[in-house]
Task: structure prediction
Amino acid sequence: MNRDNLITEIKARKSFLCVGLDTDIDRIPKHLLDTEDPVFEFNKAIIDATKNYCVAYKPNIAFYECLGPKGWESLKKTLDYIPDNKFTIADAKRGDIGNTSRYYAKTFFEYLDFDAVTIAPYMGEDSITPFLEFKDKWVIVLALTSNKGALDFQFMTDMAGEKLYERVLKITAKWGTPKNLMYVVGATRAESIGTVRKNVPDHFFLVPGVGAQGGSLADVANYGWNDNCGLLVNASRSILYASDGGDFAEKAQEKAQEIQQGMAEILVDKGFI
Amino acid sequence: MNRDNLITEIKARKSFLCVGLDTDIDRIPKHLLDTEDPVFEFNKAIIDATKNYCVAYKPNIAFYECLGPKGWESLKKTLDYIPDNKFTIADAKRGDIGNTSRYYAKTFFEYLDFDAVTIAPYMGEDSITPFLEFKDKWVIVLALTSNKGALDFQFMTDMAGEKLYERVLKITAKWGTPKNLMYVVGATRAESIGTVRKNVPDHFFLVPGVGAQGGSLADVANYGWNDNCGLLVNASRSILYASDGGDFAEKAQEKAQEIQQGMAEILVDKGFI
Result:
């Protein structure tokens, strides 16, 4: 999916919600465990329940990998089931030497046909550029993550006062464009989102950390907004596990709708719709 | 496998060679493509040909993932086929928030039963510690990688003159011990291996970049040696693709033996055997 289509979908759906499909076999309702493919059955119900309220889906690959080949089958079926007008993100946090990154790119962009994949920047240019060679596919570089460990290295400061995450933004922005490159910017560091926005005014941000991790949607919009919205805000656990009973899909729908309504207000306030 | 067993194997085998199973379906000999599982057949032949000359095997997960569920089956069969006295490394370069890293750890340590997994440090402590909770399992943190892109961020210098890769060494060394933590240190930056060794005198290094990438075994031993050898030197393409014909296994054996003989000389010179 290209940038124009994504912006069109945000306007049409009045939402910049991404639903994170971190489908944990240990947390899905027990009655699904009797089905042939519980992970896919769960995802199918979640997608049906939330597709009117979101513009993107983001399976975290860890939850599929841990089930072996069967997990990859569930993932492939999930991808095939997601409606074509949704932006799909492989939350994989890959990155290797160029020769190897090419194979990760084939996995996520060709075999699974995701629109985007998340990439860890530590290994530099040749670990990222192989992913940028695919038409209408996106790299989402980890810049400022939502977890506590983000403080360990991402805020390291050089002699000119520039932090590692700022260097990541400045340097990686030269390798792609706002049409094929986004950044992960955690909602739990609201005040830093503004710094990120100054560094890369035109790029979309994928923002985790609203919901279970405690970030605020209003802060994210306040600090991260740009003229094209520029935000995909992810919620995973707060939607997926809103209930662990037979009403899980209904509760997921309510939660997704609640978030979408908050987003619609922001979109109206900003004069975007 | 624990540290003592690894050191015992290095002495017994007179080798600190790790064979990288970066098995590329597009590069394996054509006659194998008619078999039911070409990737496994290739790995089986490579393992049989090289097991007398190495102490470790390191499949790079990218080459298996790109084949979908079948690739994971080939990987699982390969792991089951590797002799028990070999140290096995999942070259996966994973790393996510704690809740998610736990699932990657389950994948590689429980489902696939690897001894070790490579981890990208960008996301900090909670992305790494879930991997350190498994008995006799290892985390191998990317410190100084062998690729050109290593220069983009790993050499960033803070106000006290400390580089990012040095900070990664110092900080991550507090989370584990030399009994469950190693570092990736590229052979292509020989002079920096000495700096890494000063920072972490007791840890093992996994050293890629000898062979196809141009690093020198003598330099690695010169700069990286410690009292327990402290080195696992990886070669992948130079062994795997020594020939693309029917004699591929024979040529792989010759290449592995040649490297092992160089290592045996170093081990004797150092008085280790």
Remarks:
- The beta strands of chain B are 17-21, 56-59, 87-94, 116-119, 138-144, 181-185, 204-207, 231-235.
- The radius of gyration of chain B is 18 Å.
